[in-house]
Specification:
Layout lengths: L2 E8 L4 E10 L3 E8 L6 E8 L2 E7 L8 E8 L2 E7 L6 E7 L5 H9 L12 H14 L2 H7 L2 E3 L14 H6 L5 E3 L4 H14 L7 E4 L12 H5 L4 H17 L4 E2 L23 H16 L12 E5 L18 H8 L1 H8 L4 E4 L3 E2 L2 E2 L4 H11 L5 E3 L7 H5 L5 H10 L14 H6 L5 H17 L12 H7 L3 H14 L1 E5 L12 E4 L24 H7 L7 E4 L11 H11 L2 E7 L18 H11 L5 E6 L7 H6 L2 E4 L7 H9 L66 E3 L3 E2 L3 E2 L5 E9 L5 E11 L10 E10 L4 E8 L5 E3 L5 E3 L2 E8 L5 E8 L7 H5 L1
Helix pairs in contact: 1-16, 2-15, 3-15, 7-8, 7-16, 7-17, 8-10, 17-22, 18-22, 19-20
């Protein structure tokens, strides 16, 4: 039975293909590829008795639903029973081999539906077409466009009472579908919409493409550590290219929440703690996803999430309360959304939290007044999963009917999956909402559908031939490897890196030494088995099997019998040890908040035993959040933060370990020294009793009595295999007016022995004013590549815009006074200089302060 097997099942709604890959090393292993099943299947147990195989598994997205296989193999055929989530068990009969491609089958089936030379409509043509169609639609038709369903009867979180997607689509009760994923499923459902629904309005197909589609890129937090805006834009464009080839049109991303609390699992999806860098990355992601024109079928509609301040959830607990000032809202959490909207994002998704006691999903001030009126957003606003229903759970509405009214009043256009909006008809009849409110929403939805071309060519995104060409393409993998290398942050190195000799005996110890769990959460690739492990990366570098001593030591959270003893024995035989430790993908992402952000205890115990051997030891981390590493920082010789790097992870890590790539990543979230510091971030305020060098040993100041205030590794920090020296800062002048530009310059010299890339960072501090300002704020950076011994002058332009903040007058303005400028290699390692902004003669600042 070892080998690849398949079967096809034709149902009235779909063609299902299951592919079984059976392997045997020490024991039997089964991998299952299901099409067009929207979630990856993970097998937990495999039992073989003669020609019979029994396996049980699950999908992490429907963890409570069992997946079972009872199969009997005979020569080149097999038969048996299969149980998939939310379906009755069914009988299967299949054969050896990978079987026919659903893509090839679909290519010929699509030919009658293909349209050629479809012209892009201009804005006026779209406006007129929308009004004509809108006039034909009933209230029920309009509610349908504002509703969404899953592509199957599978729900996330609490169960959703709903008809099948086929029935909803045929009746015109949905305008978009979530998680269809494959071109086959998109075609099946789009065909129903076009041929059976009341007005034949095509569907939007939505999906969460967070860090790649089939080619998986580093998780967003990792990618942000590259500080390479162009590379992030390119990765987003490739993700859109691959996802749109499968019929997806609307992305539930990027997540642009500012995140300061590493206990929150969703920090993995964002760009870290800084609003300036976060804004640049948000802009790049929108540009990458949407390209130059949404009519291009290789682009996706970008959806900025989660509007707004979701990253400020109390105690880092997902879906929890947020309580912040409006100044913090506007100066910290709002800027990335503004940048994404200015870049043309077609959609925005609400946050799960409250603001000023009102759930965002029904918060008219945030969604209408701030988002639409102030920021000028005229695109489609979509609820997050179930968040309209959750207005009731928050205690802001009596029932789902009142919740639907509040969401509509807040200008929410689409309800994701749940069915509260079904009650809008009754609300209109009762005079509690107006049909014109529905018209406004449907107008925005239809406009977007015309913009992407599906109103004139419904199947233009269904391109199975492009799926075959684009998915997991060699060039895409090269881009993933490149970004992965740039995302790695070297946190400590006492000279043990780079590895000098491939003839050394290297012990790779830990649960991530040969694990393919390097992709992170929010990925749906069919190519997970192709993920390059650390072991494979080392072997590709020419390290022979005889020189690699591989020991798991323990699971991520569980001990292995004899594992520590075998790991210690391997360390004793080795010249150097790689401790491959970290978090599983399940430990990061949505609903993966952690009380304790240390490595699991079983891994700490493994590490302590191995370190006691006394060999040079390098900690190679796989994780989705900053961790508390105080013990490791004292005990190991080097720490390499690799995050979840994606499809090419092992290659990228080996590139860095052997010095074929000099690490250049810089942290975008601070690593706390202790859990009790959390949240800890660089751009905090002074207090009335700030800790200084002169008073740090005294009691009555803002400090802990049992540890430091400072993080272990601060924002902007990251080492290289070379060293860089900064000159003092030179300012073009020390007084500037609002109309002037001040130039701040430093000379950066590579004082080491190898070429390296440095990210030169500019910070500014407003020393005093009508409201207190942070101790530092990132306002610019430049990446420079310097050969050994080479020096380069780096110049930054500072204008009034760099000094502005949202003030008590509810305006973005710069306030005259004294400022400090800092330039250096991290938020803590900087040179400093001072300048003054002269008052604007047109403003009486003393009067304004009154």
């Amino acid at each position: 039975m070892i080998g690849t097997w398949h079967f096809l099942l034709q149902t009235p709604e779909s063609t299902i293909k299951l592919q079984f890959i059976i392997e045997k090393m020490e024991a039997y292993a089964l991998s299952v590829i299901a099409e067009p099943f929207p979630f990856p299947i993970e097998i937990h147990t495999v039992t073989v008795d003669g020609d019979m195989l029994q396996a049980k598994g699950s999908s992490r997205y429907v963890a409570d639903e069992p997946i079972e296989f009872d199969l009997t193999f005979e020569d080149d055929e097999f038969h048996g029973r299969v149980k998939l989530p939310y379906q009755e068990a069914f009988f299967v009969q299949g054969a050896k081999g990978p079987g026919p491609s659903l893509q090839d089958m679909l290519i010929s089936e699509l030919q009658p539906y293909r349209k050629h030379e479809v012209r892009q409509r201009n804005e006026e043509e779209i406006r007129q077409a929308v009004e004509i169609l809108l006039a034909k639609m009933s209230v029920a038709d309009k509610i349908g466009q504002m509703s969404q369903c899953m592509s199957t009867n599978i729900s996330l979180g609490s169960e959703v009472a709903s008809d099948s997607p086929e029935k909803l689509i045929a009746a015109g009760r949905v305008g978009s579908v979530l998680s269809a994923i494959t071109s086959r499923r998109v075609f099946e459902l789009q065909k129903i919409a076009v041929e059976q629904s009341p007005h034949g309005i095509p569907l939007l197909f939505n999906f969460d493409v967070i860090h790649g589609f089939q080619t998986v890129f580093p998780v967003p937090l990792a990618g942000s550590c590259s500080w390479d805006i162009a590379a992030i834009r390119e990765a987003s464009a490739i993700a859109a290219k691959e996802a749109s080839a499968s019929g997806n049109t609307y992305n539930h991303g990027p997540m642009v929440d500012i995140t300061r609390d590493p206990r929150w699992g969703r920090v993995v999806e964002g760009a870290g703690e800084d609003p300036y860098l976060g804004s640049l990355i948000a802009k790049a992601q929108v540009e990458g996803l949407q390209g130059d024109n949404l009519f291009d079928p290789e682009t996706l509609i970008a959806c900025l999430k989660h509007f707004v301040a979701y990253g400020a959830a109390e105690a880092g607990r997902d879906y929890n309360t947020v309580d912040i000032s409006e100044g913090t809202l506007r100066n910290v959490y709002l800027p990335p959304f503004q940048a994404g909207i200015e870049a043309g994002a077609g959609s925005v998704m609400n946050a799960f939290n409250t603001y000023q006691g009102v759930p965002v999903a029904g918060n008219r001030y945030l969604l209408n007044d701030v988002l639409r009126k102030e920021l000028g957003f005229d695109g489609v606003l979509i609820s997050d999963y179930g968040s309209i229903d959750e207005i009731v759970a928050h205690g802001n509405a009596k029932d789902s009917k009142e919740a639907a009214r509040k969401a509509l009043d807040a200008t929410m256009d689409i309800e994701m999956v749940t069915r509260s909006y079904d009650q809008l008809q009754e609300l209109i009849e009762e005079g509690l909402v107006a049909e014109k409110q529905l018209n406004e929403s449907v107008r925005r939805i239809l406009t977007l559908k015309y913009k992407i071309g599906i109103m004139d060519d419904p199947f233009r995104y269904v391109r199975p031939e492009k799926e075959k060409e684009y998915h997991f393409h060699t060039q895409h993998l090269e881009v993933s490897r490149s970004l992965a290398r740039k995302s790695i942050v070297l946190l400590k190195n006492n000279g043990v890196l780079p590895l000098a000799c491939k003839a050394q005996k290297i012990a790779i110890i830990g649960p991530f030494g040969d694990s393919k769990d390097l992709l992170g959460p929010w990925q749906w690739s069919r190519f997970t088995k192709e993920t390059v492990t650390l072991r494979e990366g080392m072997e590709e570098k020419g390290v022979s099997e005889t020189h690699l001593l591989l020991e798991e030591g323990c699971k991520v959270e569980e001990a292995v019998d004899g594992g520590v003893e075998r790991a210690v024995a391997a360390a004793e035989q080795a010249d150097i040890v790689l401790l491959a430790l970290g978090e599983s993908s399940e430990m990061s992402g949505e609903a993966a908040s952690r009380l304790d952000i240390h490595l699991p205890k079983v891994q700490q115990e493994l590490a302590e035993a191995v370190v006691r051997v006394g060999k040079p030891t390098i900690l190679v981390l796989t994780n989705g959040r900053p961790l508390v590493l105080d013990g490791f920082a004292r005990q190991v010789d080097a720490i390499v933060e690799t995050w979840f790097l994606g499809s090419e992870a092992g290659h990228a890590i080996a590139d860095v370990l052997f010095g074929d790539y000099n690490p250049s990543g810089k942290l975008t979230m601070s690593f706390p020294a202790h859990s009790g510091q959390v949240p800890v971030y660089y751009n905090h305020f002074h207090t009335g009793r700030p800790v200084t060098e002169s008073n740090q040993g005294q009691k009555f100041f803002s400090r802990y009595i049992d540890g430091p205030n400072e993080p272990l590794y601060p924002f902007g920090y990251g080492l290289s295999y070379t060293t860089f020296e900064y000159s003092d800062i030179q300012l073009s002048h020390t007084q500037m007016t609002a109309s002037e530009t001040l130039i701040a310059s430093v000379t950066v010299t590579n004082t080491g022995k190898v070429s390296g890339e440095e990210t030169v960072q500019l910070y500014i501090q407003d020393l005093y004013g009508r409201v207190v300002r942070p101790v530092k704020e990132l306002k610019g950076f430049q990446k420079v590549i310097l050969a050994a011994g080479e020096a380069q002058d780096v110049h930054f332009s500072i204008t009034e815009a760099d000094l502005e903040y949202w003030n008590l007058e509810k305006k973005n303005e710069a306030e005259p006074g004294e400022f400090k400028v800092y330039i250096g290699s991290s938020s803590c390692d900087v040179k400093e200089a001072s300048f003054e902004l002269s008052p604007n003669s047109n403003i009486n600042w003393q009067e304004a302060e009154k």
